[in-house]
Design goal:
It is built from 15 helices and eight strands. By secondary structure, it is an alpha+beta fold. The two termini are about 40 Å apart.
Length: about 375
């Protein structure tokens, strides 16, 4: 609970807090006419105190400033690095195997292979049965979320997962392209689908391992929301980047070149988000990146100056968010829901039963995911 609450407070601490603490120790050496103040230089946030004052107020201000800087520079980054190192160790077992798929006509066979197999082809003992079955199921579900739509049957047979797409007249109409906006722009759709399948497989296997690890680690349990909002846990460094970006916006707002600097920071952040697509929700990736582009456009409106450019830049994200409500789903979210349903039926799969999943993305408020055994 303490870790979760601390992570929730971090955005409020960084937005304005880091910049204010730095200004608490800074001095104003020039007046509004750009004339040097000399010995009359005063503290920026405490103008009634000169920089040479040694009274108790100046001592308290300096103490608070240096303690805060130590917290922002050492304690908070160290805490985040500690969480990142723990999650890296926790999800290490998810990287000990790799999935392959053989495609057929409306079917696929998914296999799981250990990275370090024995000479006779058998799997090492480190790849235990229970996590191996979960990882195999994760790979199969991820494959269905990317390549199939409609009803798909799953059957475990000799350490491989058989998938068959069962189409009827109603389900054929629901078959759609599962690619995100970024994938649609790629010419080689097959390559894009393969990369997405690998990415979603890693996402599911990391969550399988993390759920087992957090049961015995209260720190990881408190940080689950932080890690699970990213499609891959290694992308949690975006959390640090966005905190630094928020601090940068606050620190440059008082400068003479504030609109230009804000536009530059916003465009760099938007391009970074568009390139990495870090979040599980593809709508969050598109909206987050678009918001920074609109922020840069609003900053440009102050430079032109054109008030309507700034106003449109602030209004467009709401229009995009409204448009996204028509298709609020994506392959990553679909895979998470499918795996949650399929994991409950894993004992039946291990006994040779066949389960069927309705692989369909949500539209508006309708959910089309179910299962039968």
């Amino acid at each position: 609970m303490g870790v979760r609450m601390a992570l929730r407070l971090l955005p409020f601490l960084f937005i304005g807090g880091a910049s204010s603490c730095a200004r608490l120790l800074s001095c104003q050496h020039y007046d509004a006419g750009d004339q040097a103040l000399g010995e009359d230089a005063f503290l920026t946030l405490l103008p009634h105190l000169t920089c040479r004052d040694g009274g108790w107020q100046a001592t308290v201000a300096a103490s608070v400033g240096w303690i805060s800087i130590f917290g922002y520079v050492i304690i908070i980054p160290g805490f985040l690095l500690y969480l990142m190192s723990k999650q890296k160790s926790a999800i290490a077992p998810s990287k000990r195997s790799i999935a392959t798929a053989e495609l057929g006509q409306d079917m696929a066979v998914v296999r799981l292979h250990a990275f370090q197999a024995h000479d006779d082809g058998t799997e090492p003992e480190t790849l235990e049965k229970e996590p191996r079955m979960k990882h195999l199921l994760a790979a199969a579900v991820a494959h269905s979320a990317v390549y199939f739509r409609g009803t798909v049957s799953f059957r475990l047979q000799e350490n491989r997962m058989m998938q068959v797409q069962l189409l009827d007249a109603a389900e054929i109409q629901d078959v759609e392209n599962a690619n995100s906006t970024a994938s649609m722009m790629l010419r080689d759709k097959e390559y894009a689908d393969q990369r997405r399948w690998i990415k979603i497989t890693r996402m599911l296997t990391e969550r399988c391992v993390f759920q087992d690890a957090e049961k015995g680690d209260r720190i990881l349990a408190g940080a689950d929301r932080l890690f699970c909002k990213y499609v891959l846990f290694e992308l949690v460094w975006f959390e640090v980047v966005l905190k630094l970006v928020s601090a940068a916006f606050v620190s440059v707002i008082d400068s003479d070149d504030a609109p230009t600097l804000c536009a530059g920071v916003a465009l760099v952040t938007a391009s970074t988000l568009a390139s990495f697509q870090p979040y599980v929700q593809r709508q969050a990736n598109d909206l987050h990146s678009f918001c920074f582009v609109c922020l840069a456009a609003s900053a440009a409106g102050f430079v032109l100056p054109n008030v309507w450019v700034a106003r449109c830049g602030l209004a467009l994200p709401f229009l995009l968010a409204f448009a996204q409500t028509l298709r609020p789903d994506g392959p990553e979210s679909l895979a998470l829901r499918l795996y949650e349903v399929a994991e409950q039926q894993l004992p039946e799969l291990e006994q040779g039963a066949t389960i069927e999943l309705s692989v369909a993305t949500e539209r508006l408020l309708q959910s089309n995911v179910g299962f039968w055994v």
